[in-house]
Amino acid sequence: MIKSYTDHAANERTFLAWLRTGVAVIAFGFLMERFDLFIVTMADAVEVTPAHREQLDALAHSFSAGAGRGFILVGIAFILVATFRFVRTGYLLDDAAIHAPGMVADLSLSVILAILLLIVTIPLILPLF
User: Fold this and answer.
1) Count of other CB atoms within 10 angstroms of residue 2
2) What is the pTM of this model?
């Protein structure tokens, strides 16, 4: 039997949760990257003045490309950090010494993701004011 099996199983579950989060963030990045196709299709479906059409095209291409790439990069960072944490925690579980928890990577990725979400919501909120 594996020594500290429950701890190793919890480590693996945490790793899989991080991976799911990373894949979800990457998928949202791809959605943002291709959001311009949705905007152009919707603009073709309804009557839009040429001035509004130009505004939609400018917003769709610049905004969605930058935000999408940002989310994809953060998702990749989630996966890389998750892999590093999984391997490191596995070694620390087998070590007999007591170790302090490392929260720097968790906190920094959470802050980066929150900033990206704020950046994405700003263009949606500004037309309301």
Assistant:
1) 9
2) 0.74
